[in-house]
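in:
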């Protein structure tokens, strides 16, 4: 089908307006668009905890519902037998509190761009895990974007708690940055109203060298600090729009022990398999259950 040029421009604008938060990532960053360089992220002290009246992540720890495990909602440690084996790949849950799941948009979810080719002038050129093009992904995107339904109004009304997708140790917990960055469909630019374009985010280190990252958190919402050990389902902060973000959303990114971005979603024929306990729950998004082996923080890591 012939696609007029104007349509392509509109498509590109939409891509940028909705989710051109590609720069929100870490290891894949080759420029300063992200506003969140990796090395100095921990230099910024976390902001004081919010006052609890507006969007405090007060949801109790998500009770793991994995039938394979009986993880208590408290800090009870699992026996060693329940730990991941050497070389095991992580198993994640959906990184939004189940109590607020309905606040998140079912679609679109912007996935990792699995097409290795770069298309700097055409953000619509991409292929996600299911072979789908934009808007299922966009060029160079290194995470999975889960959008907050209702945008800033929902964010202001309490937003949604972002939770640890597996047990881990906090390597980076950055807070204090402006959280109302947004896309301008006229200029295709992201504006932070003159504030520095830096994201509030958390980086967790899991067993076997794996990491997960949670970007664009609401200012003042980061509820963990560097070195803290968190269990799967523990609240990390609230969905926001800090950094190179066009709308309130969570950018969830997974990195391998080698620091390579790994798409947690897998096709049915993907031999490596999904990194989610349940890749597609009834609503099509990952399930909220923790894997018992990955529910607790590992013993063998410390913040770098
Ligand atoms: Zn993203």
């Amino acid at each position: 089908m012939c696609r007029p040029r104007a349509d392509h421009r509109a498509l590109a604008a939409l891509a940028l307006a909705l989710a051109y938060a590609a720069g929100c990532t870490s290891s894949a960053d080759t420029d300063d668009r992200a506003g969140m360089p990796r090395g100095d992220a921990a230099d910024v002290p976390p902001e004081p905890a919010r006052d609890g009246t507006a969007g405090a992540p007060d949801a109790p720890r998500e009770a793991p519902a994995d039938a394979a495990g009986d993880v208590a909602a408290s800090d009870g440690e699992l026996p060693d037998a329940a730990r991941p084996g050497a070389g095991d790949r992580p198993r994640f849950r959906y990184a939004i509190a189940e109590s607020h799941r309905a606040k998140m948009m079912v679609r679109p979810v912007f996935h990792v761009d699995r097409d290795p080719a770069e298309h700097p002038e055409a953000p619509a050129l991409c292929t996600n895990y299911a072979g789908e093009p934009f808007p299922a992904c966009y060029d160079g995107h290194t995470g999975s974007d889960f959008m907050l339904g209702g945008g800033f109004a929902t964010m202001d009304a309490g937003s949604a708690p972002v939770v640890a997708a597996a047990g881990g140790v906090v390597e980076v917990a950055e807070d204090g940055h402006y959280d109302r960055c947004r896309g301008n469909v006229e200029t295709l630019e992201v504006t932070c109203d003159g504030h520095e374009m830096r994201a509030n985010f958390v980086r967790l280190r899991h067993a076997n060298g794996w990491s997960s990252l949670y970007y664009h958190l609401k200012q003042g919402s980061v509820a963990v600090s560097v070195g803290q050990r968190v269990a799967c389902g523990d609240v990390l902060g609230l969905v926001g729009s800090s950094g190179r973000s066009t709308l309130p959303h969570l950018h969830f990114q997974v990195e391998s022990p080698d620091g390579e971005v790994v798409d947690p979603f897998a096709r049915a024929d993907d031999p490596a398999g999904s990194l989610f306990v349940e890749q597609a729950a009834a609503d099509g998004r990952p399930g909220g259950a923790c894997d018992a082996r990955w529910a607790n923080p590992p013993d063998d890591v410390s913040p770098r």
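note: The two ends are 51 Å apart (CA to CA).
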